[in-house]
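Question: Hello, beginner here. Any chance you could explain the protein record under this note? Any guidance would be welcome.
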Amino acid sequence: MDTVVGVPWGPVTLTGDLVVLEPLSHDHHDGLVDAAGDGRLWELWYTAVPTPEGMAAEIDRRIALAREGRMLPFVTRSADDGRVLGMTTYMDPDLAVPRLEIGSTWNAASTQRTGTNTESKLLLLTHAFETLGCELVEFRTHWLNRQSRTAIERLGAHYDGRLRAHRRMPDGTLRDTVVYSVAAAEWPAVRSDLRFRLARAR
């Protein structure tokens, strides 16, 4: 198995006060369908949230990429009642640096402004920097996904640039991709801010 600074790049469960991030499996299918239906997220044209009919294929895709070492997919679950809230992943690891991207993330509409996404990112960033020893963690999103861009910027991530006509979307339009990142040297300040915001939200 590939490693990042001597640590296995493999399944791990990350536990917080609000959410638990656990390795994706086919057992999560029905919960993910319910979560995507909370807000009918697949109708947001600038995202790639699977439809109920396409959820099984999306789970298959992410698990296949995990087996290739190209993705580490998680399901986001409520720590309070166990309800499935959405999905997120570590993707495209470069073990030579090391660095990775946090992406392919979506959450049920009712979770907005509840602190669950903030804590999810805190858990993922903490593991990436403090266990995997990453030098940099990247975030990418659609230029027109203003909600996602605002959430990433609120994390304290640095704006790195815009990749023009970077990807073809399911509806045929071309996506401009916005790139953000947090470097290891910036992580202590970002961590303090995330912890402060979570404490204020409780």
Notes: DSSP finds five helices and ten strands in the chain. Residues 84 and 173 are 30 Å apart (CA to CA). Confidence is low (pLDDT under 50) at residues 1-7. The longest strand covers residues 84-94.
